[in-house]
Amino acid sequence: MSETDNVILDTASRIVADLSTQEVINAAEKGAWPTALWEAIEQSGLHLTWVPEASGGAGADLLDGFAVLKAAGAAALPVPLAETLLAGWLLGRAGLEVPEGPLTVARGRHRLADGRVSGAAVAVPHARHAAQILVLAEAESGLYVACLPRAACTVREDRSLAGEPWDSVEFNAVEPTLCAPAADVDEQALDAMGALIRVTQAAGALATALELSIQYAGERVQFGRPIGKFQAIQNMIADFAGEVAAINAAADAAAEAVAAAGGAIDADAWVEIATAKVRLGQAASNGPAVAHQVHGAMGFTYEHRLHHFTRRAWAWRDEFGTETRWARALGDAVLSWGPDQLWPRITAVTDK
Predict the structure, then answer these.
(1) Pairing of the two strands 132-139 and 110-113
(2) Distance separating alpha carbons of residues 67 and 2, to the nearest angstrom
(3) What is the mean pLDDT of residues 92-112?
(4) For residue 258, which of 245, 249, 271, 277 has the smallest C-alpha distance?
(5) Tell me: the pLDDT tens digits for 32-87?
(6) Same domain, yes or no, for 53 and 119?
(7) 3-state class (DSSP) for residue 78
(8) Looking at 183, 214, 248, which one is the last position of a domain?
(9) Whole-model pTM above 0.70?
Protein backbone atom coordinates (compact mmCIF):
# COMPACT_ATOMS: atom_id res chain seq x y z
CA MET A 1 0.00 0.00 0.00
CA SER A 2 1.43 3.38 -1.04
CA GLU A 3 1.69 6.48 1.12
CA THR A 4 -1.29 7.96 -0.73
CA ASP A 5 -3.30 4.80 -0.09
CA ASN A 6 -2.49 5.00 3.61
CA VAL A 7 -3.56 8.64 3.79
CA ILE A 8 -6.93 7.91 2.15
CA LEU A 9 -7.68 4.91 4.35
CA ASP A 10 -6.46 6.64 7.52
CA THR A 11 -8.66 9.64 6.72
CA ALA A 12 -11.69 7.44 6.14
CA SER A 13 -11.07 5.42 9.32
CA ARG A 14 -10.68 8.54 11.42
CA ILE A 15 -13.84 10.18 10.11
CA VAL A 16 -16.04 7.11 10.55
CA ALA A 17 -14.64 6.38 14.02
CA ASP A 18 -15.22 9.94 15.23
CA LEU A 19 -18.52 10.76 13.55
CA SER A 20 -20.38 7.52 12.73
CA THR A 21 -21.35 6.84 16.33
CA GLN A 22 -24.23 4.77 17.62
CA GLU A 23 -26.12 7.95 18.50
CA VAL A 24 -25.64 9.40 15.02
CA ILE A 25 -26.76 6.17 13.33
CA ASN A 26 -29.86 5.91 15.54
CA ALA A 27 -30.73 9.54 14.84
CA ALA A 28 -30.31 8.98 11.09
CA GLU A 29 -32.75 6.06 11.25
CA LYS A 30 -35.26 8.47 12.79
CA GLY A 31 -34.79 10.92 9.92
CA ALA A 32 -32.01 13.24 11.09
CA TRP A 33 -29.42 14.04 8.41
CA PRO A 34 -25.83 13.66 9.83
CA THR A 35 -24.64 17.10 8.70
CA ALA A 36 -21.26 17.02 10.45
CA LEU A 37 -20.47 13.56 9.10
CA TRP A 38 -21.27 14.42 5.49
CA GLU A 39 -19.41 17.74 5.69
CA ALA A 40 -16.32 15.90 6.94
CA ILE A 41 -16.56 13.46 4.04
CA GLU A 42 -16.85 16.26 1.48
CA GLN A 43 -14.02 18.28 3.02
CA SER A 44 -11.75 15.22 2.89
CA GLY A 45 -12.74 14.44 -0.70
CA LEU A 46 -13.55 10.80 0.11
CA HIS A 47 -16.72 10.95 -1.99
CA LEU A 48 -14.57 11.76 -5.05
CA THR A 49 -12.15 8.86 -4.63
CA TRP A 50 -13.25 7.17 -7.87
CA VAL A 51 -13.60 10.32 -9.91
CA PRO A 52 -10.76 11.07 -12.40
CA GLU A 53 -8.86 14.31 -11.85
CA ALA A 54 -10.00 15.46 -15.28
CA SER A 55 -13.58 15.26 -14.01
CA GLY A 56 -12.85 17.16 -10.81
CA GLY A 57 -12.14 14.16 -8.60
CA ALA A 58 -9.31 12.81 -6.50
CA GLY A 59 -8.09 10.43 -9.21
CA ALA A 60 -7.08 7.84 -6.63
CA ASP A 61 -6.55 4.16 -7.28
CA LEU A 62 -9.74 2.13 -7.66
CA LEU A 63 -8.73 -0.13 -4.79
CA ASP A 64 -8.55 2.93 -2.51
CA GLY A 65 -12.27 3.40 -2.99
CA PHE A 66 -12.99 -0.19 -2.06
CA ALA A 67 -10.89 0.21 1.09
CA VAL A 68 -12.96 3.28 1.97
CA LEU A 69 -16.17 1.32 1.35
CA LYS A 70 -15.06 -1.50 3.63
CA ALA A 71 -14.30 1.01 6.39
CA ALA A 72 -17.70 2.62 5.82
CA GLY A 73 -19.45 -0.74 6.12
CA ALA A 74 -17.49 -1.57 9.25
CA ALA A 75 -18.83 1.65 10.82
CA ALA A 76 -22.41 1.32 9.48
CA LEU A 77 -21.98 4.74 7.89
CA PRO A 78 -25.48 6.33 7.69
CA VAL A 79 -24.83 8.61 4.69
CA PRO A 80 -24.74 7.85 0.94
CA LEU A 81 -20.97 7.66 0.52
CA ALA A 82 -21.23 4.32 -1.33
CA GLU A 83 -23.97 5.67 -3.58
CA THR A 84 -21.96 8.83 -4.33
CA LEU A 85 -18.91 6.71 -5.19
CA LEU A 86 -21.02 4.57 -7.54
CA ALA A 87 -22.42 7.72 -9.15
CA GLY A 88 -18.90 9.10 -9.50
CA TRP A 89 -17.74 5.90 -11.19
CA LEU A 90 -20.69 6.10 -13.58
CA LEU A 91 -20.08 9.77 -14.38
CA GLY A 92 -16.39 9.15 -14.84
CA ARG A 93 -17.02 6.34 -17.36
CA ALA A 94 -19.17 8.82 -19.33
CA GLY A 95 -16.57 11.60 -19.08
CA LEU A 96 -18.80 13.87 -17.00
CA GLU A 97 -17.84 16.04 -14.06
CA VAL A 98 -19.31 15.24 -10.65
CA PRO A 99 -21.80 17.76 -9.26
CA GLU A 100 -21.74 18.91 -5.66
CA GLY A 101 -23.62 17.21 -2.87
CA PRO A 102 -24.60 13.63 -2.10
CA LEU A 103 -25.58 11.51 -5.11
CA THR A 104 -27.42 8.26 -5.73
CA VAL A 105 -28.21 5.95 -8.63
CA ALA A 106 -31.69 4.84 -9.68
CA ARG A 107 -31.83 1.59 -11.63
CA GLY A 108 -34.71 0.65 -13.90
CA ARG A 109 -35.92 1.33 -17.39
CA HIS A 110 -35.74 5.03 -18.20
CA ARG A 111 -36.34 6.80 -21.49
CA LEU A 112 -34.51 9.84 -22.88
CA ALA A 113 -36.56 11.72 -25.47
CA ASP A 114 -36.41 15.34 -26.59
CA GLY A 115 -33.67 15.98 -24.06
CA ARG A 116 -35.77 14.84 -21.07
CA VAL A 117 -35.88 11.66 -18.97
CA SER A 118 -39.00 9.76 -17.96
CA GLY A 119 -39.32 6.60 -15.91
CA ALA A 120 -39.61 5.23 -12.41
CA ALA A 121 -37.46 3.36 -9.92
CA VAL A 122 -37.97 1.64 -6.59
CA ALA A 123 -35.60 0.97 -3.70
CA VAL A 124 -33.36 3.94 -4.50
CA PRO A 125 -30.94 4.39 -1.59
CA HIS A 126 -30.96 7.87 -0.02
CA ALA A 127 -32.99 9.39 -2.87
CA ARG A 128 -34.52 11.94 -0.47
CA HIS A 129 -31.04 13.17 0.52
CA ALA A 130 -29.46 13.25 -2.93
CA ALA A 131 -28.78 16.51 -4.68
CA GLN A 132 -28.75 14.64 -8.00
CA ILE A 133 -30.00 11.21 -9.08
CA LEU A 134 -28.07 9.29 -11.76
CA VAL A 135 -29.82 7.03 -14.26
CA LEU A 136 -29.04 5.06 -17.40
CA ALA A 137 -31.58 6.24 -19.96
CA GLU A 138 -32.33 4.68 -23.35
CA ALA A 139 -32.59 6.97 -26.37
CA GLU A 140 -32.97 6.18 -30.05
CA SER A 141 -29.23 6.69 -30.47
CA GLY A 142 -28.26 4.43 -27.56
CA LEU A 143 -27.75 4.41 -23.81
CA TYR A 144 -26.97 7.62 -21.91
CA VAL A 145 -25.84 8.56 -18.42
CA ALA A 146 -28.16 11.29 -17.16
CA CYS A 147 -27.86 13.35 -13.99
CA LEU A 148 -31.25 14.54 -12.74
CA PRO A 149 -31.91 17.16 -10.05
CA ARG A 150 -33.73 15.51 -7.17
CA ALA A 151 -35.92 18.59 -6.75
CA ALA A 152 -37.45 17.92 -10.19
CA CYS A 153 -38.31 14.31 -9.33
CA THR A 154 -41.15 12.83 -7.29
CA VAL A 155 -39.77 10.95 -4.28
CA ARG A 156 -41.85 8.65 -2.08
CA GLU A 157 -40.01 7.80 1.12
CA ASP A 158 -39.51 4.25 2.36
CA ARG A 159 -36.89 2.37 4.36
CA SER A 160 -34.83 -0.77 3.93
CA LEU A 161 -34.49 -3.59 6.45
CA ALA A 162 -31.43 -1.73 7.75
CA GLY A 163 -33.52 1.36 8.48
CA GLU A 164 -31.84 3.34 5.71
CA PRO A 165 -33.70 5.49 3.16
CA TRP A 166 -34.87 3.26 0.30
CA ASP A 167 -37.18 5.45 -1.72
CA SER A 168 -39.33 5.23 -4.84
CA VAL A 169 -38.68 7.87 -7.50
CA GLU A 170 -40.65 8.98 -10.55
CA PHE A 171 -39.16 10.99 -13.42
CA ASN A 172 -41.67 12.85 -15.55
CA ALA A 173 -39.89 14.54 -18.44
CA VAL A 174 -37.05 15.75 -16.22
CA GLU A 175 -34.34 17.79 -17.92
CA PRO A 176 -30.86 16.46 -17.01
CA THR A 177 -28.21 18.78 -15.60
CA LEU A 178 -25.61 16.50 -17.23
CA CYS A 179 -25.97 13.93 -19.98
CA ALA A 180 -23.57 11.93 -22.15
CA PRO A 181 -23.35 8.57 -23.95
CA ALA A 182 -22.78 5.71 -21.51
CA ALA A 183 -19.66 4.47 -23.34
CA ASP A 184 -18.75 1.02 -21.92
CA VAL A 185 -21.39 0.95 -19.17
CA ASP A 186 -24.72 -0.84 -19.51
CA GLU A 187 -27.31 -2.09 -17.03
CA GLN A 188 -25.40 -5.34 -16.42
CA ALA A 189 -22.17 -3.46 -15.67
CA LEU A 190 -23.98 -1.05 -13.35
CA ASP A 191 -25.58 -3.93 -11.45
CA ALA A 192 -22.22 -5.67 -11.18
CA MET A 193 -20.45 -2.60 -9.80
CA GLY A 194 -23.30 -1.96 -7.40
CA ALA A 195 -23.23 -5.57 -6.25
CA LEU A 196 -19.49 -5.39 -5.59
CA ILE A 197 -19.96 -2.21 -3.58
CA ARG A 198 -22.55 -3.93 -1.39
CA VAL A 199 -20.36 -7.02 -0.98
CA THR A 200 -17.47 -4.82 0.14
CA GLN A 201 -19.61 -2.89 2.61
CA ALA A 202 -21.10 -6.11 3.97
CA ALA A 203 -17.61 -7.59 4.42
CA GLY A 204 -16.76 -4.63 6.65
CA ALA A 205 -20.04 -4.85 8.56
CA LEU A 206 -19.66 -8.57 9.21
CA ALA A 207 -16.09 -8.04 10.42
CA THR A 208 -17.38 -5.59 13.02
CA ALA A 209 -20.17 -7.97 14.05
CA LEU A 210 -17.49 -10.64 14.57
CA GLU A 211 -15.40 -8.28 16.71
CA LEU A 212 -18.44 -7.44 18.85
CA SER A 213 -19.20 -11.14 19.29
CA ILE A 214 -15.67 -11.98 20.36
CA GLN A 215 -15.66 -9.07 22.80
CA TYR A 216 -19.03 -10.00 24.30
CA ALA A 217 -18.08 -13.68 24.62
CA GLY A 218 -15.07 -12.61 26.67
CA GLU A 219 -17.10 -10.34 28.94
CA ARG A 220 -20.35 -12.27 29.51
CA VAL A 221 -19.98 -14.60 32.48
CA GLN A 222 -22.19 -17.68 32.82
CA PHE A 223 -21.74 -20.57 35.27
CA GLY A 224 -18.72 -18.83 36.76
CA ARG A 225 -16.69 -18.19 33.60
CA PRO A 226 -16.85 -16.18 30.36
CA ILE A 227 -19.06 -17.84 27.76
CA GLY A 228 -16.12 -17.61 25.35
CA LYS A 229 -14.49 -20.40 27.35
CA PHE A 230 -17.20 -22.88 26.37
CA GLN A 231 -16.30 -25.06 23.40
CA ALA A 232 -19.72 -24.67 21.78
CA ILE A 233 -19.35 -20.89 21.73
CA GLN A 234 -15.77 -21.17 20.49
CA ASN A 235 -16.91 -23.37 17.60
CA MET A 236 -19.67 -20.93 16.67
CA ILE A 237 -17.30 -17.96 16.67
CA ALA A 238 -14.75 -19.96 14.65
CA ASP A 239 -17.44 -20.65 12.04
CA PHE A 240 -18.31 -16.95 11.98
CA ALA A 241 -14.64 -16.04 11.56
CA GLY A 242 -14.48 -18.39 8.59
CA GLU A 243 -17.44 -16.67 6.98
CA VAL A 244 -15.86 -13.25 7.50
CA ALA A 245 -12.53 -14.40 6.06
CA ALA A 246 -14.26 -15.91 3.03
CA ILE A 247 -16.39 -12.89 2.18
CA ASN A 248 -13.46 -10.50 2.64
CA ALA A 249 -11.30 -12.65 0.35
CA ALA A 250 -14.07 -12.80 -2.26
CA ALA A 251 -14.67 -9.04 -2.07
CA ASP A 252 -10.96 -8.28 -2.41
CA ALA A 253 -10.53 -10.65 -5.36
CA ALA A 254 -13.44 -9.04 -7.19
CA ALA A 255 -12.15 -5.54 -6.48
CA GLU A 256 -8.72 -6.48 -7.81
CA ALA A 257 -10.30 -7.91 -10.96
CA VAL A 258 -12.16 -4.64 -11.62
CA ALA A 259 -8.97 -2.67 -10.97
CA ALA A 260 -7.08 -4.93 -13.39
CA ALA A 261 -9.71 -4.11 -16.02
CA GLY A 262 -9.12 -0.39 -15.55
CA GLY A 263 -12.41 0.16 -13.74
CA ALA A 264 -14.47 -1.62 -16.38
CA ILE A 265 -16.51 -4.79 -15.84
CA ASP A 266 -14.99 -7.31 -18.21
CA ALA A 267 -15.83 -11.02 -18.31
CA ASP A 268 -13.27 -12.01 -15.67
CA ALA A 269 -14.30 -9.20 -13.32
CA TRP A 270 -17.96 -10.17 -13.72
CA VAL A 271 -17.23 -13.77 -12.71
CA GLU A 272 -15.37 -12.61 -9.60
CA ILE A 273 -18.21 -10.26 -8.68
CA ALA A 274 -20.84 -12.96 -9.21
CA THR A 275 -18.84 -15.35 -7.05
CA ALA A 276 -18.52 -12.75 -4.29
CA LYS A 277 -22.23 -11.90 -4.43
CA VAL A 278 -23.17 -15.57 -4.10
CA ARG A 279 -20.69 -15.93 -1.25
CA LEU A 280 -22.28 -12.95 0.51
CA GLY A 281 -25.59 -14.82 0.58
CA GLN A 282 -24.06 -17.51 2.79
CA ALA A 283 -21.99 -15.14 4.94
CA ALA A 284 -24.91 -12.79 5.58
CA SER A 285 -27.14 -15.70 6.57
CA ASN A 286 -24.77 -17.68 8.77
CA GLY A 287 -22.62 -14.93 10.31
CA PRO A 288 -25.35 -12.73 11.85
CA ALA A 289 -27.14 -15.84 13.14
CA VAL A 290 -24.04 -16.71 15.16
CA ALA A 291 -23.59 -13.11 16.32
CA HIS A 292 -27.11 -12.92 17.70
CA GLN A 293 -26.84 -16.35 19.30
CA VAL A 294 -23.64 -15.35 21.08
CA HIS A 295 -25.14 -12.09 22.31
CA GLY A 296 -28.38 -13.74 23.38
CA ALA A 297 -31.25 -11.43 24.31
CA MET A 298 -28.86 -8.47 24.52
CA GLY A 299 -28.16 -8.67 20.80
CA PHE A 300 -31.83 -8.29 19.89
CA THR A 301 -32.32 -5.00 21.73
CA TYR A 302 -32.34 -1.73 19.79
CA GLU A 303 -30.00 -0.20 22.35
CA HIS A 304 -27.17 -2.59 21.45
CA ARG A 305 -25.22 -1.66 18.32
CA LEU A 306 -24.99 -5.19 16.87
CA HIS A 307 -28.14 -4.76 14.79
CA HIS A 308 -26.61 -1.82 12.91
CA PHE A 309 -24.27 -4.29 11.24
CA THR A 310 -26.38 -7.44 10.95
CA ARG A 311 -29.40 -5.64 9.46
CA ARG A 312 -27.17 -3.93 6.92
CA ALA A 313 -25.62 -7.25 5.93
CA TRP A 314 -29.10 -8.69 5.42
CA ALA A 315 -30.27 -5.69 3.39
CA TRP A 316 -27.13 -5.51 1.23
CA ARG A 317 -27.29 -9.25 0.55
CA ASP A 318 -30.31 -8.75 -1.71
CA GLU A 319 -29.49 -5.39 -3.32
CA PHE A 320 -28.42 -5.41 -6.97
CA GLY A 321 -29.77 -8.91 -7.36
CA THR A 322 -30.46 -11.81 -5.02
CA GLU A 323 -28.10 -14.69 -4.36
CA THR A 324 -30.30 -16.97 -6.48
CA ARG A 325 -30.21 -14.63 -9.47
CA TRP A 326 -26.43 -14.29 -9.33
CA ALA A 327 -25.92 -18.03 -8.78
CA ARG A 328 -27.97 -18.87 -11.88
CA ALA A 329 -26.14 -16.29 -13.98
CA LEU A 330 -22.78 -17.54 -12.72
CA GLY A 331 -23.77 -21.13 -13.50
CA ASP A 332 -24.78 -20.17 -17.03
CA ALA A 333 -21.47 -18.36 -17.54
CA VAL A 334 -19.42 -21.32 -16.32
CA LEU A 335 -21.40 -23.79 -18.47
CA SER A 336 -20.79 -21.62 -21.53
CA TRP A 337 -17.05 -22.16 -21.18
CA GLY A 338 -17.34 -25.85 -22.03
CA PRO A 339 -15.35 -28.71 -20.46
CA ASP A 340 -12.08 -27.86 -22.21
CA GLN A 341 -12.01 -24.30 -20.88
CA LEU A 342 -13.34 -24.87 -17.37
CA TRP A 343 -10.07 -25.39 -15.52
CA PRO A 344 -8.02 -22.85 -17.53
CA ARG A 345 -10.68 -20.18 -17.01
CA ILE A 346 -11.00 -20.83 -13.28
CA THR A 347 -7.25 -20.68 -12.74
CA ALA A 348 -6.89 -17.62 -15.01
CA VAL A 349 -9.45 -15.68 -12.97
CA THR A 350 -7.93 -16.84 -9.70
CA ASP A 351 -4.40 -15.87 -10.71
CA LYS A 352 -5.29 -12.21 -11.40
Answers:
(1) parallel
(2) 13
(3) 93
(4) 271
(5) 999 999 999 999 888 988 877 766 666 678 899 999 999 999 999 999 999 999 99
(6) no
(7) coil
(8) 183
(9) yes
